[in-house]
Amino acid sequence: MTPGTIVVGLLILGIVVAIVVKLVRDKKRGKCPGCSESCAHCPGHDEK
Fold this sequence. Notes:
The protein has one helix spanning 3-28. By secondary structure, the protein is mainly α.
């Protein structure tokens, strides 16, 4: 592999990890991934 391929791969991996971390944090705070605020009508809202 070339250095450019490795850099691009690491960049994409970092973006994916950041998205997953944000989704997990939002879930722990009770926010739904598709909503801008906490809402009781989202499926899975009662799950903890």
